């Protein structure tokens, strides 16, 4: 398991990309990254993934089992790609909560969804994944898409998600992971650390934020480690599905 925190004298530390920082600083540092990239987030997603992120998210929706009348939490939901799909699936009798710790991302998501006419069954909540502000047993499904790697205490976040799921509910974690083939891993590293920051500099005028995002992917637990973390938090029947050669993985676990 990746150990994200350690003691340095009396000060607890964690990873911010490849850097070691004081644990209490990470939330603000991650917030600054997403404040910086929010306006260009959707454009950069398409450029970075060559549009494939839409297929990854569609597969997540297909695996969610969300039905009419259910309650869904789209955690770290950003600009609302999954929320838009879930809103249509749950219908007027259901509810989708788009939650994000970053108010800039939350504002972008609200504006984007309202512009496409999604207003009635979506609620917006600024929330920290480590301490979700919802009662126990609230949601039928929780998704966290490309957000878990930015959480300081992933174990606490997984326990918090488990708490607010209803019995029979499921968690889906869509996240960058470890490529299954070494040649692909090398090519992916070259792209992430040399080309991606340059794209970020040209399009979002912020190469440093995209350098952090590449580093945060490398520090994120691999497929088997994350599966074990979910099981430790209480999830059962936990599985994962590699996509694009393991560059991305979708983990799914249930609360019984």
From TrEMBL:
Signal peptide span: none
Coiled coil: none
Listed CDD domains: AdoMet_MTases
InterPro entries cross-referenced by the UniProt entry: SAM-dependent_MTases_sf, UbiE/COQ5_MeTrFase, UbiE/COQ5_MeTrFase_CS
Alphabetic keyword roster: Menaquinone biosynthesis, Methyltransferase, S-adenosyl-L-methionine, Transferase, Ubiquinone, Ubiquinone biosynthesis
Enzymatic class: transferase
Domain of life the protein comes from: Bacteria
Protein name: Ubiquinone/menaquinone biosynthesis C-methyltransferase UbiE
């Amino acid at each position: 398991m990746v150990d994200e925190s350690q003691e340095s004298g009396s000060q607890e530390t964690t990873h911010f990309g490849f850097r070691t920082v004081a644990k209490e600083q990470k939330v603000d540092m991650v917030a600054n990254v997403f404040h910086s990239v929010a306006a260009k987030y959707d454009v950069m997603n398409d450029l970075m993934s060559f549009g494939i992120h839409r297929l990854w998210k569609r597969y997540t929706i297909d695996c969610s089992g969300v039905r009419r009348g259910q309650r869904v939490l789209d955690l770290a939901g950003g600009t609302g790609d999954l929320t838009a799909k879930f809103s249509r699936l749950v219908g007027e009798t259901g509810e989708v909560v788009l939650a994000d710790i970053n108010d800039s991302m939350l504002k972008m998501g609200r504006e984007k969804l309202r512009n496409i006419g999604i207003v009635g069954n979506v609620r917006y909540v600024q929330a920290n994944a480590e301490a979700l502000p919802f009662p126990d047993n609230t949601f039928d499904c929780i998704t966290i898409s490309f957000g878990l790697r930015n959480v300081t205490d992933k174990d606490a976040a997984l326990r918090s998600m488990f708490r607010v799921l209803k019995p029979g509910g499921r968690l889906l974690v869509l996240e960058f992971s470890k490529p299954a083939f070494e040649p692909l891993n090398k090519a992916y590293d070259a792209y992430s650390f040399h080309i991606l920051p340059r794209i970020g500099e040209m399009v979002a005028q912020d190469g440093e934020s995209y350098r952090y995002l590449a580093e945060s992917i490398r520090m994120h637990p691999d497929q088997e480690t994350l599966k074990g973390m979910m099981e430790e938090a209480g999830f059962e029947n936990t599985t994962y599905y590699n996509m694009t050669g393991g560059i991305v993985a979708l983990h799914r676990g249930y609360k019984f």
